[in-house]
Design goal:
Elements: H1 22-34, H2 39-44, H3 52-65, H4 70-76, H5 92-104, H6 106-117
Protein name: IS1634 family transposase
Organism: Parazoarcus communis SWub3 = DSM 12120
């Protein structure tokens, strides 16, 4: 107990950093409204167990919001709240495998992207 007339001790306050959402949310909505989530159909036919479209989107958003190396993506993903993002954890190996899938299906991806850009030209 504190003596009579003594001021009580000030409460200890600590702050934790929040995850960024605004720019990531806006870019995710733009990704969907432009139709880039259609890339999911290309990768759904593969035998990959990871969500390749989500990981490709993650890398694109990282380049737009905070461009760094591929390893930088792993640090960045811990600082943002990603809407509509399925994978619980992301590894460097998964990012590399997603890039492999992108290259393996380049013709199909090019077809999807060309179809999305055609109305804009």
């Amino acid at each position: 107990r504190e003596p009579m007339g003594a001021k009580p001790a000030a409460p200890t306050v600590s702050f934790e950093s929040a995850r960024a959402l605004g720019n990531v949310w806006a870019l995710t909505e733009l990704w969907k409204s432009l139709g880039f989530s259609g890339l999911r159909r290309v990768f759904r036919r593969t035998r990959r167990t990871t969500d390749v479209e989500a990981l490709i989107r993650l890398m694109v958003l990282n380049r737009l919001c905070d461009p760094e190396s591929k390893l930088g993506v792993l640090r960045w993903v811990q600082t943002v709240a990603l809407p509509d993002f399925g994978p619980k954890a992301v590894t460097h190996q998964q990012l590399l495998r997603s890039l492999d899938a992108l290259m393996d299906h380049q013709d199909e991806v090019d077809g999807v992207v060309a179809g999305l850009l055609r109305p804009l030209i």
